Amino acid sequence: MDDYDTIYGSDRGPQITIKEADSRHAQIVLSNCDLAFANALRRIMLAEIPTIAIDIVEIQTNTSVIPDEFLCHRLGMVPLDSTNIDDKLIYTRDCFCDQYCERCSVTLSLHARCTGEDNVTVYARDLVIAEGAQLGSPVINDPEGQGTVICKLRKGQELRLKCIAKKGIAKEHAKWAPTAAVGFEYDPWNKLRHIDYWYEEDAKEEWPKSKYADWEEPPIEGEPFNYDAVPSRFYLDIESAGSLPPDEILQQGIKYLQEKLAAVIETFSNKNETGDGFGDGVRSPGQDYSMGGMGGGGAGYETPYQGGRTPFGGGGFGGATEYGGRLMGGHKCVAAVAMG
Amino acid sequence: MNAPDRFELFLLGDGETKVSMEQDTRQPNAAIFTFNKEDHTLGNLLRATLLHNEHVVFSAYKVPHPLFPKFELRVQTDEETTPKEALLAACQSLIGDLQMLSQKLTREWELNKIARDTS
Ligand SMILES: [Zn+2]
């Protein structure tokens, strides 16, 4: 328990406070860190967290008014449940199969036909997920339980298609973004003067107060400007697109930022040894090393770096506590932290 | 039609390494690191973290061209350390910081959830 207190009770390292949260969004305050750190976290949450989205559509029948490619695009944008994706699915490019298989994809099928006089609306709930799939069911959050609208059909029109959903990141296509938006703000009183407010007569009168203003002390009248001041509190508002809950988005963001950094360390530590497969370029970022050599390199987990193992590569985030404890408990790493 | 595949933004090509280091011959203890398939997310983070190190004299990065997914990080240190060591230390300390953040987040989220469930 001592260890626990020294880690959690300390003021060292970045601090996090949750202001407001539910299953779809989270408002958090990051403090005791610099702008670059907070911004890196924001950027990685926007672009580099894997989710699952429809990537291939095999159309058998489409007699609706919507052209095939239009329909495919709409299907791609439907958020699909991606919780714990790293434990359940691998990237197709890291898989042994030819085009897709159940290890690297989830199949959803859609069959809808309008027979009556009234038009039929096809919703995300009408996508039927393949039996035994561990993830990838359409996200439905509306009170009616319908999900997003895919298409509308008139009498006699029909849709019959098969969708292949794959794992990917938003850097490749925005449909894989786990966030709808990430709000980012700091210095609500503009004490640092990073913003020049445009005004007619008086900026104070004309501009609304930041919603975070009450969280910081207002400036004192006539206070001299502090040229050395840097921002240290950051207000993030994470809005989930539905595929992942906000806490998992944050945790995954942290994890993939760590992976990036670990990859840098790994490059240098492997240069001194015989080339044992590192630099095997096709390995996807965040490829789960523990999945029995399905990934490319297979080097990561045990790679020695300054006597310790690379603090990365072990399983999904669920298994983090084990190496997390070692990482924080070990003197080597605590010393490294203190340097930062 | 001749657009490069989107995954070329983040997947290393054949034989490509994540980072390469070139010693700056004009100054002692200076090096330019070229990061492949990385962007401002890592570039600015490392730049800022390196500047916290008292032995780092200079640290800056640039993206030479927006169409190429790489950046260059120039680091100069004093006699006490080398650019490579400073970079590795920065990565190590960030991994540690992120680990602490992750643990704090887990705890905060649990507390928040309990508060939400009871109210
Ligand atoms: Zn496969």
TrEMBL record, chain A:
It comes from Tuber melanosporum (strain Mel28) (Perigord black truffle). This is DNA-directed RNA polymerase II subunit RPB3. Belongs to the archaeal Rpo3/eukaryotic RPB3 RNA polymerase subunit family. The keyword Transcription applies. SMART domains: RPOLD. The lineage of its organism: Eukaryota, Fungi, Dikarya, Ascomycota, Pezizomycotina. Residues 25-267 form the DNA-directed RNA polymerase RpoA/D/Rpb3-type domain. GO terms for biological process: transcription by RNA polymerase II. The keyword Nucleus applies. One of its GO terms (cellular component) is chromatin. One of its GO terms (molecular function) is protein dimerization activity. Pfam families: RNA_pol_A_bac, RNA_pol_L. Keywords: DNA-directed RNA polymerase, Nucleus, Transcription. InterPro entries: DNA-dir_RNA_pol_insert (IPR011262), DNA-dir_RNA_pol_RpoA/D/Rpb3 (IPR011263), RBP11-like (IPR036603), RNAP_Rpo3/Rpb3/RPAC1 (IPR022842), RNApol_insert_sf (IPR036643), Rpo3/RPB3_RNA_Pol_subunit (IPR050518). It comes from the Eukaryota. SUPFAM superfamilies: Insert subdomain of RNA polymerase alpha subunit, RBP11-like subunits of RNA polymerase.
From TrEMBL, chain B:
It comes from Tuber melanosporum (strain Mel28). The keyword Cytoplasm does not apply. Keywords: DNA-directed RNA polymerase, Nucleus, Transcription. Its main location: nucleus. It is found in: Nucleus. GO terms for biological process: transcription by RNA polymerase II. Pfam families: RNA_pol_L_2. One of its GO terms (cellular component) is RNA polymerase II, core complex. GO terms for molecular function: DNA binding; DNA-directed RNA polymerase activity; protein dimerization activity. SUPFAM superfamilies: RBP11-like subunits of RNA polymerase. The lineage of its organism: Eukaryota, Fungi, Dikarya, Ascomycota, Pezizomycotina. Residues 31-103 form the DNA-directed RNA polymerase RBP11-like dimerisation domain. The keyword Membrane does not apply. This is (Perigord truffle) hypothetical protein. Belongs to the archaeal Rpo11/eukaryotic RPB11/RPC19 RNA polymerase subunit family.
